[in-house]
Write a structure and sequence with these properties.
Elements: H1 4-25, E1 29-35, E2 40-43, E3 55-62, E4 70-73, E5 83-86, E6 95-98, E7 105-108, E8 117-125, E9 131-140
Parallel strand pairs: 1-9
Antiparallel strand pairs: 2-7, 3-4, 3-8, 4-5, 6-7, 8-9
Keywords: Signal
Protein name: Ig-like domain-containing protein
InterPro entries: Ig-like_dom, Ig-like_dom_sf, Ig-like_fold, Ig_sub, Ig_V-set
């Protein structure tokens, strides 16, 4: 028998994978190319259902991982002063989120070859259902003159 927590994790993963697959099928995947060692700016521009809604939490997932590699939590105050967390094993100290940019952006600097992959940004709102944005990041070799 699965515990209640396990059921919640399985259901959340199912819905996340379904939303990501649907975004890919509808062509809602943004492609981004960056030179290794450069600055990768991954935009997160989903739109809430309610125009006056507030974003509370932003989660970034890499490839098919079910655990985020980066999170930004603004449940305790203004959106521009949220709590940041990055998976040290994946991103180290190279990642930071800019909530005040338009659209809000996750920056990876310097970009490493292992950063290449599909990133999904999920935004949880106060009133609206969660929304996602998908970015396919390609990291190419260093520029040769």
């Amino acid at each position: 028998m699965m515990s209640r927590r396990s059921v919640v994790i399985v259901m959340t993963s199912f819905f996340w994978f379904t939303a990501t697959a649907a975004a890919k099928e509808m062509g809602l995947v943004r492609s981004l190319w960056v030179v290794r060692g450069g600055r990768a700016e991954l935009p997160c521009a989903p739109t809430p259902k309610h125009k006056q809604d507030s974003a509370l939490v932003v989660l970034w997932y890499r490839s098919s991982d079910t655990i985020p590699v980066y999170s930004y939590d603004a449940r305790e105050g203004e959106f521009t002063s949220g709590v940041r967390w990055a998976d040290e094993g994946e991103l180290g100290g190279r990642a930071h989120f800019i909530p005040s940019s338009e659209p809000p952006t996750l920056v990876l600097e310097p970009a490493h070859a292992r950063d290449q992959g599909v990133y999904t940004c999920r935004v949880d709102y106060l009133l609206s259902p969660s929304t996602t944005a998908v970015v396919n990041l390609t990291v190419v070799g260093e520029y040769l003159v």
